[in-house]
Amino acid sequence: MYTVPRAGQFGFHQRVEYDKRIMIMGNTEDDKLKINPDGGYKHFGLVKGDFIILKGSVPGTYRRLIKLRSQIRNVPAKVNKPNILEVVV
Fold first, then answer.
1. Using CB atoms within 10 A of its CB, is residue 20 exposed (0-12), middle (13-18) or buried (19+)?
2. So what's the pLDDT on residue 1?
3. Is residue 21 part of a domain?
4. Which DSSP symbol is given to 74?
């Protein structure tokens, strides 16, 4: 039963996206990185607690839970750490 998409879901629960790169992992209590814009994000508010910034887009609503796991494909030969100069909010 879990493999059959139900009405209105279009197979959402079985879809997988690969190679999402984690750019920043942090906490809003850290003074090094200001992640919240003045007044918070539109339709969301202020980010409180832990957060992850991913490169690219994530489908779904802005409050949808995202499940991350370790990679299942081979690691590329060399992955450089991203050089983040600033975060524009």
1. middle
2. 44
3. no
4. P
d(CA 53, CA 23): 6
pLDDT digits (tens, 9 = 90+) for 11-47: 666 667 777 888 888 888 876 778 888 888 888 888 8
- Give the structural domain span for 46: 26-70
Please give the Cα distance from 22 to 1 (Å, whole number). 33
| 61 residue type, one letter | T
- The sign of the dihedral angle between the CA atoms of 27, 29, 32, 34 is positive
Q: What pTM was estimated for this model as a whole?
A: 0.60
d(Cα 14, Cα 6) in Å, to the nearest integer?
11
